[in-house]
Design brief:
- The complex is a heterodimer of chains A (101) and B (411).
- Chain A is built from 5 helices and no strands.
- Chain A has 101 residues and is an all-alpha fold.
- Chain A has a single domain, classed as Arc Repressor Mutant, subunit A, CATH 1.10.10.
- Chain A is globular, with a radius of gyration of 12 Å.
- The termini of chain A are far apart.
- With 411 residues, chain B is of the alpha/beta class.
- Chain B folds into 3 domains: 170 residues, 3-Layer(bba) Sandwich (FAD/NAD(P)-binding domain); 143 residues, FAD/NAD(P)-binding domain, CATH 3.50.50.60; 57 residues, no CATH class.
- Helices cover 23% and strands 26% of the residues of chain B.
- In chain B, a hairpin with a 4-residue loop joins β15 and β16.
- In chain B, α1 packs parallel to α6.
- The longest helix of chain B is centred in the last third of the chain and has 19 residues.
- Classes of the chains: A mainly alpha (101), B alpha/beta (411).
- Chains A and B meet through α3 and α4 of A and loops of B.
């Protein structure tokens, strides 16, 4: 496990407890843990989610991401396999997307 | 004369009309409620229709019966809401209504057309059914009556959905129903869900997931449906998994009312951005939300609308007096989960506290077991229909507190 992950705290479900503790290096480390190597396309989505998430206080849902970035759901699933909204939220240091209630 | 306008006469809107009729001075205020449909549906009852437990007659009554006489009721669709101008344009009724206060209670509805292939004419309502509408539930009842067995797949298209426990109840009741008909061995039951487990919250998900397993119901988690291929009879996910079905029961994408979108008031699912503690909309201080119409991250369910009621009424009355709204809504939800064989499970939770096991103390009726099957929970659910029609809609006193309590819960 990457040393940077030891410097911050995560909740039971693996989300960063303090979104302000986030950094690009941390994102790389979390992504690596999820088996994802971040490309430019990944960063475009992460940055959109960071901005949107900090603005509204909640991680964006899948629909908000596709609508906001113009990237198709299909592509999101290939970039962030399984649950893209949840995966991006984790990597972007945001909480669990609120669609899941 | 000032106007208090309510859009939607479902569970939330009807309760608000009843409470406001008591609270507002009729010499100062006219209360108007608008709905496109004259029939009130007891939506929790739709679940029982496919299995022949309820019929259509058990779940419909005229809306007018539940609204106080001094409330003006207009049956019409709504063409446009103009919150900057404090007015609402009606379609069928060809009227414009100016308001001083507006409560949006337009609910959420299914949109099967959001999933490619789902509404293909060859299959829709033939071997693909929703049960979130009376039509779908009734047609499914007819199908199940003569079904000889095969693979039943229940799929949730995407979250959030109205009544997030209903899919589980449908699965549990299916297991019971096929047992009763002596064809359980001929039916394979599969639950394909976009969630990582049986339910949204970890502890309840583990317990309810265990119940699925005990009943021989197969769980396919993290399944995000991309399309339905009705020729091959498979549903396909974005990550290219395929699940074959003989009977597909779908919970399609849920969205808020189209008029919310058309009026530019909603998010990407037509839910109105709302303060989750005060129930005031984010943008307009005289526009308030009850029930499913807002984007608050609480369950979309009648019990939640009921727990919102006292908070929204108090806050509107405070606002009328020039006072700040109070952040009193805690996301409280309380759901009886029908689990088959005359048993049920009860869960009680809010924004902060996930459903926990323990006992739910209810004076006069309880205690009910939390996150554990019992016959009492089943009777609680059955009794609820009577309470809904006779007490809840009319804004009467229910033996439930609006805010969640930790009493009896094992934290």
């Amino acid at each position: 496990m990457s040393a940077i992950l030891e410097t911050v705290t995560f909740n039971d479900e693996g989300f960063l407890t303090d979104p302000n503790a986030w950094s690009r290096e941390l994102a790389e480390a979390i992504a690596a843990q999820e088996g994802i190597e971040l490309t430019e396309k990944h960063w475009e989505i992460i940055e959109f989610c960071r901005q949107k998430g900090l603005e509204s206080g909640a991680a964006p849902t899948l629909r908000q991401i596709t609508k906001g970035t113009g990237i198709s759901t299909k592509e999101l699933f290939s970039l962030f396999p399984k649950g893209p909204a949840k995966k991006v939220a984790k990597i972007a240091g945001l909480g669990k997307p609120e669609g899941c209630v | 004369m000032k106007t208090f306008l309510i859009l939607g006469a479902g569970t939330g809107g009807t309760m608000v009309a009843n409470k406001m009729a008591q609270a507002l001075d009729p010499n100062e205020w006219r209360i108007v409620i608008i709905d496109r449909d004259e029939t009130h549906y007891y939506q929790p009852g739709f679940l029982f229709i496919p299995f022949g437990i309820y019929s259509a007659a058990d779940v419909v009554k005229p809306k007018r019966n539940f609204l106080p006489p001094q409330v003006e009721v207009i049956f019409s669709d709504i063409e446009l809401i103009e919150p900057e101008k404090n007015r609402v344009k009606l379609g069928r009724a060809k009227k414009t209504i100016n308001y001083d206060y507006l409560v949006i209670a337009t609910g959420s509805h299914i949109h099967p057309e959001e999933t490619p292939g789902l509404t293909d004419e060859a299959a829709w309502m033939k071997n693909i059914f929703p049960f979130y509408t009376l039509e779908g539930a009734s047609k499914l009842a007819n199908f199940l009556k003569y079904w000889k067995g095969g693979r039943l797949v229940l799929n949730i298209a995407e979250m959030p959905i109205k009544c997030p426990v209903a899919p589980l109840e449908f699965l549990f009741l299916s297991d019971w129903f096929f047992h009763e008909r002596n064809i359980r061995d001929d039916v394979e039951i599969v639950f394909a869900t976009p969630l990582p487990g049986a339910f949204t919250k970890p502890r309840a998900s583990a317990i309810l997931g265990g119940m699925l397993e005990d009943k021989g119901i197969y769980l396919e988690p993290d399944f995000n449906i991309m399309e339905v291929d009705t020729t091959k009879q498979v549903i396909r996910s974005y990550d290219e998994r395929e699940i074959a079905y003989d009977l597909l029961v779908t919970i399609p994408t849920n969205m808020g009312a189209e008029v919310i979108g058309n009026s530019g008031m909603g998010d990407e699912l037509n839910f109105v951005p709302t303060n989750k503690y005060t129930l005031q909309t984010e943008k307009w201080e005289n526009v308030w939300i009850i029930g499913d119409a807002g984007n608050v991250p609480a369950s979309k369910a009648g019990s939640v609308a009921h727990f919102m009621l006292d908070v929204v009424i108090e806050n509107i009355l405070r606002h009328m007096e020039g006072l700040e709204p109070l952040p009193k809504f805690d996301g409280h939800a309380n759901c009886y989960i029908e689990s088959g064989f005359d048993k049920g499970v009860l869960i009680d939770f809010n924004y902060e506290v996930e459903p926990l096991p323990g006992k739910y103390p209810l004076p006069g009726f309880g205690p009910f077991s939390l996150l554990q099957e019992s016959h009492a929970n089943h009777w609680g659910k059955m009794m609820f229909r009577w309470m809904y029609w006779n007490i809840l809609l009319k804004g009467g006193e229910m033996p439930f507190e609006s805010q969640m309590s930790m009493a009896g819960k094992w934290a």
